[in-house]
Specification:
Elements lengths: L4 H14 L18 E5 L3 E7 L8 H12 L3 E5 L5 H9 L2
Parallel strand pairs: 2-3
Antiparallel strand pairs: 1-2
Length: 95
Amino acid sequence: MQIREKSIEKRLVIAVRKRRGLCPKWVSPGLDGVPDRIILLPGGRIAFAELKAPGKPLRPLQRRRKAQLEALGFRVYVIDDQEQIGGVLDALSAP
C-alpha cells in the first residue's frame, strides 16, 4: 500500500505536538509554492516542511521557494517518508 502525503503530514503534526510544539498549515495568499507546514518547537526553533508522497519531487516553484527561504537562513525540510520525521525534529531541536 502506497503511503500518502496526508498520512505523512498527520504524523508530522502529531510528532511535533509530542515535543510540545506547533505545526500549523501554511497558507499564503499571493505567495504560491510555500512549504506545507511551519514547525515551531520550544526554544524558538523554527523550520518549514514540504510534505510529499514517497518519491514525488518538488515542483519548480517549490524548489525556488525552498531556496529563497534557505537563503534567508531558514531550514526547509522535504519529507516524503514518515521515518524521516524523528530525524528532522532531532536536528531542529539540537543546539
